[in-house]
């Protein structure tokens, strides 16, 4: 009887974790699920580019599970299973929502259905894993999550990459990215770059937001700037270029146009990188 009670408790906990992950996948991906450009990209985007996006996201999801997962994990095998569960839950959530919106149905070719769901799965799966930290209770087993990803320098940069990827995904497919870059001059781009780096540094170090990184009075101001802020912006820029390539926003563009568009997208990506260090 006691064993049965434990099993029942485990099933209830698993159901709670899956439900929380589904809620996180829905909330974090809803802006993209209701974006017309994402529907169109799922229809015509080169499947090789879509595969690259998923392959880049997979190891990031596994590493994110090491930090915060659907369940408390103790080894890499569990982290892989946790990431796979997040992808599966995200696929179901995206399938249901897109079907309810009338965007996919039995009349749709299988390739198109897979494309529309796959392109939405990456942000949804990040949301499914982040749901543990954002929606978990303040006591009990829900608060137990490995901390090693946050305690290392590489872990700090990784979390910034997750934030840059997630927020960049929200805006990279839109036409506004291209429109803004066309309307900007080189001086606008330079000012936006400086603003992006300045806001990153202010959010994490200078302003003193909850979750920010305090600095000692003996530490010079430029030390955290060179150690985390600048590398964080480089990560945001790399993620921006990757997303622009995946979504075919760089095709046929000149170098100066590519740089301008990347600087525009790096603005929200940089803020996403800073926010990730504050909330994760």
Mean pLDDT: 80
Number of strand elements: 0
Distinct helical segment count: 11
Share of helix, binned: over 70%
Portion in strands: under 5%
Shape, principal axes of CA atoms:
flat
Helices and strands, in order, run as HHHHHHHHHHH
Largest sheet geometry: none
Going by helix content, strand content and strand pairing, the class is mainly alpha
Unreliable stretches (pLDDT < 50, length at least 5) are 137-150, 207-211
**Cα-based radius of gyration, to the nearest Å:** 20 Å
Distance between the termini: 39 Å
Model description:
With 280 residues, the chain is mostly helical. It is 77% helix and 0% strand. It has eleven helices and no strands. The chain has helices spanning 2-33, 36-44, 47-67, 76-100, 110-135, 148-151, 153-171, 175-183, 186-206, 222-246, 255-279. The longest helix is centred in the N-terminal third of the chain and has 32 residues, at 2-33. It is flat and about 55 Å long.
Can you give me a brief rundown of this structure?
The chain is mainly α and 280 residues long. The protein has 11 helices and no strands.
């Amino acid at each position: 009887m006691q064993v049965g009670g434990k099993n029942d408790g485990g099933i209830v906990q698993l159901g709670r974790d899956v439900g929380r992950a589904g809620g996180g996948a829905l909330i974090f991906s809803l802006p993209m699920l209701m974006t017309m450009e994402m529907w169109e990209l799922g229809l015509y985007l080169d499947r090789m580019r879509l595969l690259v996006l998923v392959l880049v996201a997979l190891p990031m999801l596994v590493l994110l599970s090491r930090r915060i997962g659907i369940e408390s994990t103790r080894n890499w095998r569990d982290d892989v299973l946790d990431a796979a569960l997040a992808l599966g839950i995200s696929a179901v959530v995206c399938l249901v929502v897109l079907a309810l919106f009338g965007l996919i149905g039995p009349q749709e070719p299988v390739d198109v259905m897979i494309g529309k769901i796959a392109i939405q799965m990456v942000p949804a799966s990040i949301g499914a894993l982040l749901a543990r930290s954002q929606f978990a209770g303040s006591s009990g087993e829900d608060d137990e999550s490995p901390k090693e990803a946050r305690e290392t320098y590489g872990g700090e940069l990784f979390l910034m990459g997750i934030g840059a990827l997630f927020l960049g995904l929200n805006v990279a497919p839109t036409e506004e990215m291209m429109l803004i870059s066309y309307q900007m001059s080189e001086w606008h781009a330079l000012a936006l770059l400086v603003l992006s780096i300045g806001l990153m540094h202010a959010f994490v170090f200078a302003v003193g937001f909850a979750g920010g990184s305090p600095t000692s009075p003996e530490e010079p101001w430029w030390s955290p700037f060179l150690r985390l802020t600048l590398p964080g912006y480089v990560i945001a820029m790399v993620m921006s270029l990757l997303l622009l390539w995946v979504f075919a926003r760089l095709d046929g563009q000149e170098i100066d146009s590519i740089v301008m568009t990347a600087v525009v997208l790096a603005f929200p990506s940089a803020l996403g990188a800073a926010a990730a260090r504050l909330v994760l």
